[in-house]
Amino acid sequence: MLVLRSRLAAALAARTLAPQVCSSFATGPRQYDGTFYEFRTYYLKPSKMNEFLENTKKNIHLRTAHSELVGYWSVEFGGRMNKVFHIWKYDNFAHRTEVRKALAKDKEWQEQYLIPNLALIDKQESEITYLVPWSKLEEPPKEGIYELATFQMKPGGPALWGDPFKRAVHTHVNRGYTKLVGVFHAEYGVLNRVHVLWWNESADSRAAGRHQSHEDPRVVAAVRESVHFLESQQNMLLIPTSFSPLK
């Protein structure tokens, strides 16, 4: 009986000391922080873009009274035209549920913003994302333009492609070709999708930095490593609205 207990104790000790295998990209910290970011994209009727933005500018305070707006942009280049993109921050899913319930009871919001604007919208999309653990939301030093680069990675999750992707992003940042605002990993929507939000002073400074990075051996090496896990990518050039917190 004593021998059996000794063997059991040894087995439990070995299990406790065994190395834990996990992805540094998405498990761990993200599981303990419920904060997430909702990406919303509205496709507007071509003749209604200005009307929609004017009404939003006038009444956005009714919406931000319920939850935090991170940024609000019009899409200048990349994909369909007459499109706006905005990011909302929530503490957790219960928080978002509370916000949606409150908005449903907010008659001022519905009558002044929601009902008039619904007639101007062709299509709406929503995606739930988390900041990856090695990224935090950064505020740019001054007003500029933004680029949302979207990467569709191969199935397998961050455990497969997380580290190479991180090295590719950090190489661009460390070499000073652009400024990183945040890196987001999709939780609801198309899976294995990563969004990188960049800031530049202008579209021309962005183009100049991109051309220089193409000739930088460190950037080229990092991109070549991560591209093995990439299925497709796309981007949008974003112009912040006058009422966007991120300028």
TrEMBL record:
Residues of the signal peptide:
none
Which segments does the entry list as coiled coil? Answer: none
- InterPro entries per the record? Dimeric_a/b-barrel, NIPSNAP, NipSnap_domain
SUPFAM superfamilies named among the record's database cross-references? Dimeric alpha+beta barrel
Segments forming domain NIPSNAP:
37-136, 146-245
Question: Which Pfam families does the UniProt entry name for this protein?
Answer: NIPSNAP (PF07978)
Taken from the UniProt entry, a GO cellular component term is: mitochondrion
Q: Which GO terms describe its biological process?
A: mitophagy
Family label = Belongs to the NipSnap family.
Q: What is this protein called?
A: (raccoon dog) hypothetical protein
